[in-house]
Amino acid sequence: LTEEQKARSARRRGAALVFLGGFLAIFAGWLLWWMLPRLGHPGVEVGGSTFNGTAQQAMGILALLGAVGVFGLVAFAYGLWQVRTGRRSLGVMVAMVALAVLIFGGGLMFH
After folding, report:
1. CB 78: neighbour CB atoms within 10 A?
2. pTM for the full model?
């Protein structure tokens, strides 16, 4: 591939990261906003629904959703950088994979 083709490919992937990362960040933020009152008061009816888990489970859920939101924000920012520069960053890709492994591992811990 020529340098121009590589840059075009990186920009396309960056645009996909902007879309997907933005979606993840917004959806995780919305879920946090919607669930926070319920998770903050286990066993109490809030807004017509009740969270029947423990306070520790609520903290795990909040941590997991927060981590997914951070992952989405990092993907969004990295996608913007890729669209702007037309380049990829090995360091950012390694950090994203490490964050994904941590999120997956955290999800398994609370399963």
Report:
1. 21
2. 0.81
